[in-house]
Design brief:
The complex is a heterodimer of chains A (377) and B (511).
Chain A: H1 6-16, H2 23-29, H3 35-44, H4 56-60, H5 64-73, E1 77-79, E2 100-104, E3 114-119, H6 125-140, E4 144-147, H7 153-163, E5 172-174, H8 188-197, E6 199-202, H9 214-225, E7 228-233, H10 240-249, E8 254-256, H11 267-274, E9 278-279, H12 283-296, H13 324-332, E10 338-339, H14 340-347, H15 351-363, E11 367-369, E12 373-376
Parallel strand pairs in A: 3-4, 3-7, 4-5, 5-6, 7-8, 8-9
Antiparallel strand pairs in A: 1-2, 2-6, 10-12, 11-12
Chain B: E1 2-11, E2 14-25, E3 30-34, H1 39-42, H2 44-54, E4 63-69, H3 81-91, E5 103-105, E6 108-109, E7 115-116, H4 121-127, E8 132-135, H5 140-144, E9 150-152, H6 156-163, H7 201-213, E10 217-220, H8 227-237, H9 243-255, E11 271-272, H10 280-284, H11 295-298, E12 303-306, H12 314-318, H13 321-326, E13 328-333, E14 336-341, E15 345-350, H14 368-376, H15 380-384, E16 388-391, H16 397-400, H17 409-425, H18 439-442, H19 447-458, H20 464-481, H21 489-499, H22 502-505
Parallel strand pairs in B: 3-4, 5-8, 8-9, 10-15, 10-16, 11-12, 12-15
Antiparallel strand pairs in B: 1-2, 2-4, 6-7, 13-14
Helix pairs in contact in B: 2-3, 7-8, 7-17, 7-20, 17-20, 19-21, 20-21
Classes of the chains: A alpha/beta (377), B alpha/beta (511).
């Protein structure tokens, strides 16, 4: 491949995998030195970026060729900033990973706009619905959906993007763990589908397990890859606010989806809106922000405006039930999850009668039942 | 000379007759006590000596041996002071053996010669029914509950005077029937009225069903939602105890030394709320040599309330499983084993997760790992015992405005009593005890209800074991509403909801 030798790739992979390695230490080791030179210096204990020689011993026990074989066996390619397939958006970024591991084809990011859809892991049905809707419509419009393959909003956004079909833009995921460690486990199938159609990226070595600090770090890559960052739902101290902060530091526009002021899961996004972020009501808001962002950076290339659709704001409203009692229950339930207790107080029915009517409405598909709550579909 | 004085000691919730044998012979002045006395019993020789001297009675300057027969059993408690003193007096010739013929003694002695009451007097009196029992004045009411003849005396010198007939037993009304005073259990935790609970219609309904059907209740909710308030109101909903249960409850309280003086037969169900720092021994019983009953025994016939269930050590909570199944506790120790009744209504309260806000989607701020750790503290088999698992939320102010004031305890208690009568007509005390085999006869389902349960089973919201529990609960709900014998969709749907599901208990969110 262009400019990067296999030996360099192997040495880079070996460096990433040294115990105790962090993104910051890695970039210090590779600062101004090629991976091969850096590797020999670390091994010899003469690297100026490793004065305490903390890596020397483990490096002497590691054989780069063997590491490279493990990566090849796992189907993971190692990208260095000089690579043609290394994402262009990361080149020149202050926090760019010195080494990036990839599954799938990272070149899907070339010549396509990218939007990050991020949010809380404990998403409400509302947030999940918005995330999957935006994911699908953005992908149909030719926009690469970038997210983190976490529970909740991330998973919904990826699933939505994949649901747009084979002609749509493929999604890209940036994860915090090693590419052979699927976290959370329930997203395994989704993970494989994202890798098959788009790409899954990570700056962590194979075998790196989920640890709290890896996720905020990967959020900066999500932000750096994207033209616009959209926070769908976030708690007031949610991790997706790191992504918004990383984007703001890079002058990347941040959009936020408004939510109920009673919903904890929307407290962070509503704060973002109050701070002046772009409100995201539907895909048009996002596409407009993408167009503006690319224009501002002189990248006004072929934005597939033809794919813009009429807003989906009025779509999907279902008719109210005709039966009087059913209607009173249906009206007592909000679009956001409403506890059975609240519904009981609002309708004044007995619990037995309410539960019977609730069962009917769930059967008819007019209500979604959760553990102790209902919401309108 | 030799004397043998009948008395009794406590073991668990039973009295064991003990014969206090005193032998006085020539030799160096001393007092030896044999027959496995524990520390309190061994100390009695100093109290007895002082009490005798203070009462103006001579302490024999001879060799005294006290044997507690049967000598293989450990003796605990200070109730043997009085029989030892009387035995010494008889053996040294101060008292005529004929004067104490037919009498038994239980009491602790003060250094000034006063006779004091001891815990478990009722149970001890039960073991000595064939004799006239002499106890402290403070214990007389309690001793009379046993139904045997008993008398009292304030001091040791009075005991001597009354035994010898120089003065009459001042309370010559032996064998009055037990005073059926209507009193609350000694730890009433002043239960308060249900009208204090604002809103919370679901929790109120669950409380009513728990009281009526004997269904164990789990309240899950964030801090400050009123879980403890609700649990304490439950005691007021239970009907008075029937006589056999009241006797058992009174005996257990007596054995634990928690019967209030002059309390009479306890007819209100007890309410016990051990702190989550409780040890397994304190909960189950068997700690001291007397094998004192534990909290679950003290809750017999009433309510055992475990606040902050998630904070109880897993081993302690799992110790509840056998008593919950059998209604009795069997405690085995090296020094013996005891059995006592423990049929109680288990009520527990807990937060759904460490932050307390899980349940509603998007509400919880805990990491999934923290939540998983929290839910692992509860064993599945124990959670399965709860027929009712309801979420208690802080009421929303907007929904409280204009809602009717809460129903008071009295009308709810009347419905509970009526529902319990329905259960008794089916041959059980409460519907929770209905055998699974009888459910098709006693809790038949109409076709709609069958379809509903079928859907729940297929969707995995209900397990096969849960099915019976839902039917029993639906039976109770129908009884409370006075519906007919066949269970219909509303009550079955309500029962399925009130039983809760695992996802809900453990605070999992979007499914």
């Amino acid at each position: 491949m262009s400019g990067v030798h296999d030996r360099e790739r192997a040495c880079a992979a070996a460096l990433v995998g040294l115990p105790g390695m962090t993104p910051v230490r890695l970039s210090r080791l590779l600062d101004g030195l090629g991976p091969t030179v850096a590797w020999s210096a670390v091994r010899a204990g003469t690297h100026p970026g490793d004065p305490s020689r903390r890596f020397a011993e483990s490096a002497r026990a590691t054989e780069p060729g063997e590491v490279a074989r493990r990566y090849a066996d796992a189907g993971v390619s190692v990208l260095l900033p000089g690579d043609r397939r290394y994402p262009a958006a990361l080149v020149g970024d202050a926090g760019a990973p010195a080494v990036l591991c990839a599954m799938g084809d990272p070149s899907v990011l070339e010549a396509r706009p990218a939007v990050a859809l991020v949010g809380t892991r404990s998403a409400t049905p509302y947030g999940a619905k918005v995330a999957s809707g935006l994911g699908r419509e953005l992908a149909s419009a030719g926009v690469v959906v970038v997210s983190g393959l976490a529970r909740g909003i991330d998973a919904a956004a990826h699933a939505g993007a994949l649901a747009a079909g084979p002609d749509a833009a493929p999604p890209v995921a940036v994860v915090g763990t090693g590419l052979d460690v699927v976290y959370p486990k329930e997203n395994r199938a989704l993970w494989q589908r994202v890798a098959a159609s788009g790409a899954v990226l990570s700056e962590a070595a194979l075998g790196t397990v989920a640890r709290p600090r890896v996720f905020p770090a990967r959020n900066r890559i999500i932000a750096a890859l994207s033209d616009v960052v959209v926070v769908v739902e976030s708690h007031r101290d949610g991790g997706s606010l790191y992504t918004a902060e990383a984007a703001a530091r890079r002058s990347i526009p941040v959009g936020a989806v408004p939510g109920s002021v009673f919903s904890h899961a929307s407290a962070g996004t509503n704060d973002l809106l109050a701070d002046g972020c772009t409100p995201v009501r539907d895909v048009d808001d996002v596409l407009a922000a993408v167009a503006l962002a690319r224009q501002g950076r002189g990248m006004s290339g072929p934005l597939p405006v033809a794919c813009l659709r009429a807003g989906s704001r009025t779509n999907g409203a279902r008719p109210a039930p005709a039966d009087r009692v059913q209607r009173s229950v249906w009206e007592a339930v909000d679009d956001t999850p409403t506890s059975v207790e609240t519904t009981l107080l609002r309708t004044g029915l007995s619990l037995a009668a309410l539960m019977a009517v609730g069962e009917e409405l769930v059967d008819q598909g007019l209500l979604t039942a959760g553990a102790g709550w209902w919401s309108r579909t | 000379m030799i004397a043998s004085i009948p008395s009794a000691v406590l073991l668990g919730v039973d009295g064991r007759p003990v014969s206090v044998e005193v032998h006085v012979s020539n030799g160096l002045p001393s007092l030896t006590m044999v027959g496995l006395p524990d520390a309190a019993v061994r100390e009695s020789r100093d109290r007895v000596r002082a009490a005798l001297v203070s009462s103006g009675l001579a302490w024999p300057r001879r060799r005294i041996t006290v044997n507690l027969a049967p000598s293989g059993m450990r003796k605990a408690g200070a109730g043997l002071d009085l029989p030892v003193a009387v035995g010494v007096l008889v053996a040294s010739g101060v008292l005529d053996p004929a004067a104490v013929d037919g009498l038994a003694f239980v009491g602790e002695l003060g250094l000034d010669g006063s006779v004091r009451g001891v815990p478990g007097t009722l149970v001890l009196a039960d073991a000595l029914l064939d004799r006239r029992l002499v106890v402290a004045e403070a214990s007389l009411d309690e001793a009379r509950l046993a139904g045997g003849p008993c008398v009292s005396a304030p001091t040791l010198s009075e005991v001597v005077a009354r035994c010898t007939g120089r003065r009459p037993w001042s309370d010559p009304t032996p064998h009055v029937p037990a005073p059926a005073v209507r009193t609350a259990a000694p730890d009433p935790t002043d239960s308060g009225d249900l009208a204090d609970v604002l809103g919370q219609p679901i929790a109120r309904r669950a409380l009513e069903a728990a009281a009526a059907g004997g269904h164990h209740l789990l309240l899950v909710g964030p801090p400050g939602a009123g879980k403890t308030l609700l649990a304490t109101r439950l005691a007021g909903l239970l009907p008075d105890l029937d006589t056999p249960t009241a006797r058992d409850v009174t005996r257990i309280l007596s054995a634990a030394g928690e019967l209030r003086p002059g309390a009479g037969l306890v007819t209100r169900p007890p309410f016990r709320a051990p702190h989550h720092g409780v040890s397994a021994v304190a909960l189950i019983g068997g700690g001291s040599a007397a094998m004192r009953p534990g909290e679950i025994g003290l809750a017999h016939g009433g309510i055992l309330f475990l606040d902050e269930l998630g904070e109880f050590p897993a081993a302690v909570v799992d110790a509840l499983r056998q008593p919950l199944e059998d209604g009795v506790v069997r405690v085995s120790r090296a020094r013996g084993s005891i059995t006592y009744p423990a049929r109680f209504l288990l009520v527990a309260a807990m937060n759904p997760c460490p932050c307390g806000d899980a349940g509603m989607p998007g509400g919880c701020r805990c990491s999934p790992a923290a939540r998983a750790r929290y839910s692992r503290r509860l064993s599945g088999p124990l959670l399965d015992r709860f027929d009712l698992a309801v979420r208690v939320d802080r009421p929303e102010a907007t929904d409280l405005v204009g809602c009717r004031p809460g129903e008071a305890t009295a009308p709810v208690a009347a419905r509970v009593l009526e529902a319990r009568r329905c259960a008794r007509r089916r041959g059980v005390a409460v519907n929770a005890d209905l055998p699974a085999g009888t459910l098709d006869d006693l809790a038949p389902l109409d076709t709609g209800a069958q379809d509903l349960l079928g859907r729940h089973l297929r969707s995995g919201r209900l397990s096969a074991r849960g099915l019976h529990r839902v039917r029993r609960l639906a039976r109770t709900l129908a009884d409370l509403d006075g519906s007919g014998p066949v269970l219909t969709v509303p009550h079955v749907a309500e029962a399925a909801f009130l039983r809760g599901d695992r996802a809900f208990l453990l605070g999992e969110e979007v499914r």
